[in-house]
Amino acid sequence: MTKSAATGQGLTRDPAKLRAFAETAARQAGFDAFGVASPAKLPDISAKLAAFLEHGRHGTMGWMEETAERRAHPQALWPEVRSVILLGMNYGPETDPLATLAQKDRATISVYARNRDYHDVIKGRLKEIAGRFAARSGADVKVFVDTAPVMEKPLAAAAGLGWQGKHTNLVSRDFGSWLFLGAIFTTAELETDMPEADSCGSCRACLDICPTDAFPAPYQLDARRCISYLTIEHKGPIPHEFRQAMGNRIYGCDDCLAVCPWNKFAQTASEAKLKAREELNAPALDDLLKLDDAGFRSLFSGSPVKRIGRDRFVRNALIAAGNSGHDTLVPHCEALIADPEPVVRGAAIWALAQLQPEAAEGLARKAAARESDPDVKTEWMRAMGAAS
After folding, report:
1. Are 55 and 48 a contacting pair, CB within 8 Å?
2. Close Cβ partners of 324 (under 8 Å, ≥ 6 residues apart)
3. What is the spatial distance between Cα 109 and Cα 252, in angstroms, rounded to a whole number?
4. 3-class DSSP state of 199
5. How far is residue 335's CA from residue 347's CA, in Å, rounded to a whole number?
6. Domain spans of the chain, in order of start
7. Distance (Å, whole) CA 16 – CA 3
8. Which of the 8 DSSP states describes residue 280?
9. Residue 256 CA to chain centroid, in angstroms?
10. How far from the centroid of its chain's Cα atoms is residue 246's Cα?
11. How many Cβ atoms from other residues are within 10 Å of residue 264's Cβ?
């Protein structure tokens, strides 16, 4: 979104006054963290980004490669930008987000996705702040919330909101790993902040807890191994090597965030819009496995979960069912073996083979020959050997 330079009374171009005005507007809009970075003084991240893409660690997220040039630096995205305002909104959970991992008949949804889509919450407020700022400064502005080729985390680090931890996410002294980020680009010159120093020290908690070893080295992420990527971005069958490690995580993964020692200073989210809906804290797997498209859309209306669609979501829930050890979920898995979508059928076969291998083998001998999808056929072939 771009707002053109405004004209009128009350204009100021003083960098200190403009910064103070922007920060006041941000606090009034409900943001918890504020900082400003100068594009001219930002470290060049193009080499790191190029290495990430060269190693294929972005997986099927082709848009990252397509936008790499613009993503590497704010001025490549918008040459006129002179200051970048970074804003953070606390979404710290009220309870331990890892506690539900032990409830095998229930699902674990990432904290950020348990309520309204944060993109909607933050973007509306950014537009409000940007509009007020444009009217006061006469400058042009653009707002971004994780939906454009903007590297919010390195920008936020440069603006002093925190530092990128070994898990590659932003860590704040005040809010731990629980900050939603948004950015306002402007042609105005503002007083800037000093970057925050890395304070991870020798801690490896976020690296060691990762269920799928998604960190090839500190400060490096291989998205192809990350449960957040696998459950959200990945469209096909979940690779077999990661299925058991997923446990009951059906949308995202909070392990590396939740274990960060800096969370001891974090506060819980202060606004109802960012607090979890009770029905999404630990939903029962048997309820989720019954969802048709209409039921899925209704349950996740306004939630970021909605964007992956019913089929991918039920695929994830079936992996959790297979890991649950609960025979009560067997009828739901059997019913989904006949689902119209191959990605659901394949996951249902795997889940059944984990819960009742003999039953899966018996069904496989009858159904494998009739299956036309190669991925699903492979699952049937695997099921035939599950009981041996």
Report:
1. no
2. 104, 105, 248, 285, 355
3. 6
4. coil
5. 12
6. 1-276, 284-388
7. 21
8. G
9. 12
10. 16
11. 7
Count other C-beta atoms under 10 Å from residue 124's C-beta.
Answer: 12
CA distance 148 to 100: 33
Which of 126, 125, 129 minimizes the C-alpha distance to 21?
129
Of 105, 146, 198, 287, which one is the catalytic site residue? 146
Residues 137-158 have pLDDT tens digits of 999 999 998 766 678 899 999 9
pLDDT in tens, 70-85: 655 788 888 999 999 9
Strand partners, 176: 172
The pLDDT of residue 136: 96
pLDDT-derived band at 340, boundaries 50, 70, 90: very high
Dig out the tokens for 147 from the structure: 């939906």
Question: Do the beta carbons of residue 168 and residue 153 sit within 8 Å?
Answer: yes
Helix 118-137 × helix 15-28 angle, to 10°: 150
In the chain, count H helices and then E strands.
18, 9
pLDDT in tens, 215-243: 999 999 999 999 999 999 999 999 999 99
Query: Model's pTM, two decimal places?
Result: 0.90
The secondary structure element, H or E, covering residue 363 is helix 357-367
Determine the residue type at 184. I
Residue 164 phi, psi dihedral angles, 5° rounding = -80, 115
Q: Is 14 a catalytic residue?
A: no
Is residue 379 classed as helix, strand or coil in its secondary structure?
helix
Of 189, 193, 194, 192, whose CA–CA distance to 14 is shortest?
A: 189
